[in-house]
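Q: Is it fine to ask for two folds in a single conversation?
A: Yes, each is treated on its own. Send the first.
Q: Here.
A: Result:
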Amino acid sequence: MAYKLAIPTMSLGHCTAGHSLETKLEAAKSYGYEGVEVCYEDLVAVAGRRQCDVEFEPLCESDQMAAARKIRAMCQDRCIKIICLQPFMQYEGLLNRREHESRFAELLTWIELARALGTGMIMMPASSLPENEVSADLDLIARDLQKAADAGRREEPHIRFAYENRCSATRIYRWEFSWDVVERVCRPNFGMCLDTFHLASLIFADPAVPSGLIPGGDKAVGMSMQRLIKRLQSHRDKIFLVQMGDAKLPNEPIVPGSPEYNPKERPWTYWSQKYRLFYGETGRGAYLPIREVADAIFNGIGYQGWVSLELFNSRMECAEVNVPMDLARRGAISWRKLADDMGWWPSASQAQQL
């Protein structure tokens, strides 16, 4: 497989800004993307519903399945593979066990949605609910995720789960923690999603200070990547997906008094949602040591497979009609730079298609 280029559908523009999935798929096709992560908000939009803030209008299972089949056909028509459905989140370790059962029932629907889409994977970010709602008991977290993995293996085709640590997560905010969980779950269809932004952000960057830097961050990233290589080099098959991304400084430090400050969450949360960039976009302000992280993943561990270019910033929320094409173009340029930096030529199959 070597390396194949993918992108989350949301990273080509939010449906709430008027960017249809069809338009985004056309943009992806135009710039040589071979796969997409289908974001649930786009599935809802295809089903003809609108998103209201962060809550979706009720959508019956039959409408969801019909939308999934339609999306599958849309992607097949453009020779684009659906690599996963995402993000199924706020699931593991819930202290309210009734809520857990409710989320598990939703997960069963997602498994069927994944099959209807023709994908074999669901991406699952670590929970970011408040501390009083999420257990710190890793055994409970692992049991919940075992339950999910076992549900994905009940019928053919099996569904895999790519579990992602996040800098904004309540408990699983470092890759070491997510790897610990993967080992505890110990299921063949449960592995990791490595996101370069989340691997570097908490130990290198501080969006609450003017410099955006943590003292000693360069050394911390280097040591972390050495540990990552040592831990995962012989377990690269447990890396189900790699997401590439960087970030820029916030407009001002995210501290009390800042319009972007929320006392209920850490500064990294808002920063990760609004200031992320594609790999290599230093001209736009990207400043994390992502090349070092990428080198550890691709050349140190030896990962090969899907590489998805994830983005979160205000450009996605812009209603201009050229947003999907613009973001697809920027991602393709990023991909070419990644291929150059990693020495992939000619392995990165779409790097030349700009």
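Q: Second one now.
A: Result:
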Amino acid sequence: MKQLIAKVKDRSKIDYYKLLSDKIIYDCNISGFQRVNYEPDHNLDEDSWFKVDKFSEQGYCIELLKKEFISAEYNEIPADMFLKIAYLCAVQDDNYFIQKITPSLFATRKILSFGENVKLEEDHRRLFINKEPDAVYIKSEDILIFKNLATISSIFKGIDELYKEATKEEVSEFLEESFIELNDGYGVDRVSKPNRKRVALAMSTLAAMSAPDRSNIFTYINSYCYEKLKFDSENQKFEISSDEELKYLLYGIEQRFYTTMLGQEKRLANSIQSLD
């Protein structure tokens, strides 16, 4: 089964329409995609996608993906609905390929048509389809894969909860930890949005650590960041006076620093993926 349908932005009861049948829109080998759990700091490789398991059980899963797809339930799209398309969904067997539609993907062109005579065709409307979809729902596995959370958040309302930031109260609680000493007026109101996300992760990581593990992680951080962070080893405190310094402390708690086996070069991992 191959169907291309469109979700339109309209207040009527009908919000999905049929566009094409029996056409392969996305020729993707999704079985070859590497799938990783969503992390905002993770830089995806070219063949990697973020994933959400048990997607149909999530509150932000759309009804289209939960029910059985029956082509006969969808009418052909009226001409006046074309510019109201919000996203496309190519149903190809058990896979649903979804692409968000933005105004930049619509084009109205004057086109020269060559046949027996040259003709100028006015008001030639087109909608561009990207080479890759923005998301794929694999129904047989109940998994959604995607590359950019912001792109699909208008389709799956509420999915941005995956990007969990620490609340102001949680950030304040973290900055009051015994191993942090704030200086130069740095405080909760100056913590950036990316660092609020990292704080949420760090709090979970620290909660699972024993006291000896905490001491060891502080030694580890100091061994890599002694030029960027001031550490009082006697009192086990890091001096934090900027968002940049907080970022390095948070990276250290997540053990993002490593040394290459050959050359002994110290590096920061921009993204991590468990091999277990």
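Q: Anything structural to flag on that second result?
A: Two points. Residues 2-162 form one domain. The mean pLDDT is 90.
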